[in-house]
Amino acid sequence: MRLFVAVTPPQDALVELDAAVVALRADWPGLRWAGLDKWHVTLAFLGEVGDERLANLVERLERATGRHQMLRLRIGRGGAFPSPGKARILCAHIEGEPQALSDLRRLAASVAAAARRAGAPSPNEERRYRPHVTLARSKQPANLGALVAALSGFNGMDWDATAVELIRSHSGSQPWYETIGNWRMRGALTRDESTD
Question: What DSSP line would sit under 127-187, residue for residue?
Answer without folding.
Answer: SPP--EEEEEEEEEEE--HHHHHHTTT----EEEE-EEEEEEEE-SSS-EEEEEEEEEPBT
